[in-house]
Structures are given as C-alpha cells and as structure tokens.
C-alpha cells in the first residue's frame, strides 16, 4: 500500500507540474498573439512625418513617409528569401527635404542584378522605421571591396554612407527592378503553441505511465498470493 501511495502521489505531482507548464504556455500564446496583432496594426497604420529624435523602442515599426533625394551610392546586404531565393537588399542614402540624411532599405534584387543601374533623384518613400537585430558572433565582416554585407548593421551602414543611424525599410517601390521587402511580423518567433502541445503531450504520457505502474503495483500482490 505504501508503494502504491508513493507512486500515486509522485504521478499526480508530475502531472500537475506538466499541466501547469502547458497552461502557462497557453497564456503566453494569448499574450504573444495580442502583441503581434498590435505590431501588425502599427506597421500598417497611416505614415507620419519622420520623428525629430527617433527612439529604437518607441519608434520601432513606426510608419513614415519622406520626400527628398535618393542617393546613387548603395550597399548590398546578402539575403536569401523564401519567395525570391538568393539576392541582395539594397541600402542607399536618402536626403530629405529638411536636409536629413537617412538610410533607405529599398528592397530586394536577384544576385545577377547586383550591379544594375537603379533610379535615383527626387522621390517619395513610404516605409517603416526599424532597428534590425541581425548581428551575432557568427556574422562575417563585410567584404567591402566586393560591396557585400552580411547583416543590416545600422551604425556601420550609416557610418559608411555618412547618414544618421536611422533605417527606413521601404514598402513603396523605389525602382521597377527592386522588390520591396517591407517590415512584417513573420520574423518574430511565436513558438508557444508548440511548447504547450509538448507539455500537454508529456502530461498525457506521464499519466499513462502512472496508471501502468499503479496497475503493476496492484497486480503484483495478487500474483504473489497465487
């Protein structure tokens, strides 16, 4: 009987822990979905003027419209996309009508179009401010001689192009040959559903194992009596 009670208490405690972890992940899922919905609403809102003093936290994803002049110099950030394959993001300097110089992520071009001529001069650009977090310990240094970058390192890009460390990712087309890659929420991880399923699945397995061991414990004395 003592062994039976021990297994019962141990099994119930384990199930309680696993179920609580699964429930917590469900709550986190609801929270994350609300955050993503808020971000999507912010991304798709009507554009506003470029803030005088942008803040990476306050103004992340802020929709902005600017008028000015697109510079001819550009930097190429190597990327691989699901829809278009390998290619480059085109990063160019943009001088606003107020005289501010910022970075514009114009969008994607295939690898073979890296050196193609692109439209410059006066234009209007609509997009979203962003401070991408793409640098880690495995990111190679840019190959400056070949003009190939491996991440959108905003401070380094700005220093190279002599602009503010401010990146506007275009959602409007700035050249017929450049496909905009606007800001979306697809890159923001949301794995809470998978985690919840995992914890609840482990709780089910734990429950079945507990039932099995309890059955074995009850069945053993009967077999011994025979």
TrEMBL record:
<keyword id="KW-1133">Transmembrane helix</keyword>
<protein>
    <recommendedName>
        <fullName>SURF1-like protein</fullName>
    </recommendedName>
</protein>
<dbReference type="InterPro" id="IPR002994">
    <property type="entry name" value="Surf1/Shy1"/>
</dbReference>
<keyword id="KW-0812">Transmembrane</keyword>
<feature type="transmembrane region" description="Helical">
    <location>
        <begin position="193"/>
        <end position="215"/>
    </location>
</feature>
<dbReference type="Pfam" id="PF02104">
    <property type="entry name" value="SURF1"/>
</dbReference>
<dbReference type="GO" id="GO:0005886">
    <property type="term" value="C:plasma membrane"/>
</dbReference>
<keyword id="KW-1003">Cell membrane</keyword>
<keyword id="KW-0472">Membrane</keyword>
<dbReference type="InterPro" id="IPR045214">
    <property type="entry name" value="Surf1/Surf4"/>
</dbReference>
<comment type="similarity">
    <text>Belongs to the SURF1 family.</text>
</comment>
């Amino acid at each position: 009987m003592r062994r039976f009670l021990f297994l019962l208490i141990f099994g119930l405690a384990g199930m309680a822990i696993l179920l609580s972890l699964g429930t917590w992940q469900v709550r986190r899922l609801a929270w994350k979905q609300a955050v993503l919905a808020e971000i999507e609403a912010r991304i798709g809102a009507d554009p506003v003027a470029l803030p005088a003093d942008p803040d990476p936290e306050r103004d992340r994803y802020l929709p902005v419209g600017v008028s000015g002049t697109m510079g001819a110099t550009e930097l190429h950030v190597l990327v691989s996309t699901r829809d278009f394959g390998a290619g480059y993001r085109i990063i160019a300097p943009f001088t606003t009508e107020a005289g501010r110089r910022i970075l514009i992520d114009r969008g994607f071009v295939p690898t073979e179009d890296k050196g193609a001529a692109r439209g410059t001069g006066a234009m209007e650009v609509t997009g979203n401010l962003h401070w991408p977090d793409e640098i880690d310990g495995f990111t190679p240094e840019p190959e400056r001689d070949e003009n190939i970058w491996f991440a959108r390192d905003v401070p380094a890009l700005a220093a190279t192009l002599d602009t503010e460390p401010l990146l506007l990712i275009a959602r409007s087309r700035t050249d017929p040959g450049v496909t905009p890659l606007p800001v979306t929420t697809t890159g923001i991880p949301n794995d809470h559903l998978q985690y919840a399923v995992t914890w609840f699945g482990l709780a089910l397995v734990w429950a079945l194992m507990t039932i099995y061991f309890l059955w074995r414990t009850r069945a053993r004395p009967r077999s011994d009596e025979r």
